[in-house]
Amino acid sequence: MNEKSYIRWFEDLDSGDVAIVGGKNASLGEMIGSLKEEGIRVPDGFATTAAAYREYVSHNVLDDAIHGLLDDYKAGRKTLHEAGSDIRKRLQRGKFPTEIETSILEAYRELSRRYDAAEADVAVRSSATAEDLPEASFAGQLETFLNVTGEKELIDACRRCYASLFTDRAIVYREEHGFDHMDVSLSVGIQKMVRSDKAGSGVMFSIDTETGFKDVVIIDAAWGLGENVVQGAVNPDEYMVFKPLLSDLELRPIIGKQMGAKEKKMVYTSGGTAPTRNVETSAGERHSFVIDDAQILELARWAAAIESHYGKPMDIEWAIDGDMGEIFIVQARPETVQSRKETALFRSYSLKETGERIARGAAIGDAVASGPANVIKSAAEIDRFQDGAILVTGMTDPDWVPIMKKAAGIVTDHGGRTSHAAIVSRELGIPAVVGTGNATKTIRDSQEITISCAEGDEGYVYEGLLEYEEKEIDLSDIPRTGTKIMMNIASPEAAFRWWRVPADGIGLARMEFIINNIIRIHPMALVDYDRLEDEEARRQIDELTRLYSDRTEYFVDNLSRGIARIAASQYPDPVVVRMSDFKTNEYANLIGGRQFEPREENPMLGFRGASRYYSDTYRDGFALECRAIKRVREEMGFDNVIVMIPFCRTVDEADKVLEVMAQSGLQRGENGLKVYVMSEIPSNVVLADLFAARFDGFSIGSNDLTQLVLGVDRDSEELSGLFDERDEAVKRMMAMQIEAAHAAGSVVGICGQAPSDYPEIAAFLVERGIDSISLNPDSVIEVMKRLSQRESPQEPAG
Known about the structure:
By secondary structure, this protein is of the alpha/beta class. The chain contains 30 helices and 30 strands. The strands form 6 sheets. Strands 23-24-25-26-27-28-29-30 form an 8-stranded parallel beta barrel, surrounded by 4 helices. It has a 7-stranded mixed β-barrel with strand order 15-19-18-17-16-20-21. Strand 18, helix 13 (420-428) and strand 19 (432-434) form a beta-alpha-beta unit.
């Protein structure tokens, strides 16, 4: 026997060594050997080989004993717990053959010398030789031991790693996935610790774990050692970065930043039996991001490079060394859920009624589930779980998997998108709402509830059994149409849910959703904060903007990220963003809004759209919208964004708006900026040639156009029977707009509700030669199929 039989340094390993050192350790070696030139740092270390494990088992005469105990379990003579516990005790009581122990300790001394330490602090991780194959993920099944220091402690940790191959959950996992227990060996990875206990750490995926969107990196981060993020013991920060624009170092394509509670952090102990412990985070830590923008971008570039090297989406653990201030990659494995999903079919869920929201957290998956809640606060109560119930608990670990498989859905107090509960929920295909903070207190055992993950990134728990709709959408063999088919999108999260739909971009991105649901503050209340009289509004604004020295930056930052996320979902196809089109009563309902809005009898025909943008009472608020668009296009890089002006009554008004935009840095034609105008007022149609000279395109708003052509208030219940986009007068007006726009050399589309609701309107518009039709996402496929039958054969629209 020689040292090389039992020990392999990471730098001598590559991805072809899985059978020798397991997937985890082989991947570390692969990165050290192949990705150094990308600047990716991986802590040094070594691994024991599968041969060392087999020799250990043989040396301690354990083969027959393990076989026998597993046979007893399968035959029902011993329970799973009894058999597993007996095997683990035998493995932990074993002794290493002298040659193997000597090899481990000599390698540990060399590692300590490399780091100029008497006894290096190391992470000791289990890596099964069948781990992280594409068809099976053993992640979370085996044990990791952090801050192991000293030779005796290291040898003991190696024994405990061997024993973890036979935890109850690992035995069940192998049984269910068809692995022979005796064919799987275990390698122990011994890696220099990264002092993230003095900084932060986390997990990142090179794919959106909820929607399968392949062009983003999702990064979770918390203070301290990374186990809390992996286990779902804290609600981490979450960042999202758009990969295709990372190659331009001048751009900052960070399209999502969400602060987590980060209630505690794992740190080293000094003295005592446990090498680590959890402590509460400070108020400053809870109210600040773990990493800055430069670190977010560095991590995202590393994730993209690792994914490119392996040729598949990856699940990556990272850590920042608080002493050195540098980031390290400590693990990388293939992502095993979204990357293997069938893309031709997907399901769309929507609630058909609303109820009282009793909890909210991160949405995992995009489904809806309802049933009785089973509130289980500890593993000791697992036997109480009722099949088909919704599991409500603090957090989960692999011991909970057997009941998770029987649950209709899962709700947790703690954890983020990379937590154990989230990962298992995805694998099982059931919805989960994680990181609610208080679900185990607000939800009663046996209470009937509905959990919805179909409303974007945020998941909700509703009281009662709500009715919902499930649609199966088949994306195979979708015919392309000569007319461009686009989508109407309001929510940034919804844009990612529909990325697979073969649309030609987004014809209407509604800014109002972002302002109303994410920002929530009236822009003028931020501009003129010192004049704000409402004390409660001041308190709310202070809380929402606490991270910003300039309150207006809160508005610009959140609006730009929301728009960028919508733009990312279709990049490089066009995304038409309509500037804000709230009515005065809607603006007044924003925080601090009432002081800045007039009371109007008919807001629908009042101070709205373009007329606000150049007025003295809102011009500075509109400037914030322009700042956000400029940031999205020029700093983040989403030059596919087209601006659209709503409710522009006159040509003179158009000139004023374009001038105000130019003053805010949005000059039509500069840096490829296109500006469209909504055609929703008869004057837009009658003077189409003059509007075409000022704008790059038209988009018909069928709701307002119908209202103004027929003289019908669209909000009037008494006149609802007269409001009909199919009326001949409305159709003629739309036809006139198409003809006039084309005569002026301008493009024209429609983003109103009519084509989604009425197939005959879509057919009429195509016959008249409209360039694009923008639809509700769930209508796209059906309309595409209908229109393709009407159109003469032609090449798809470019």
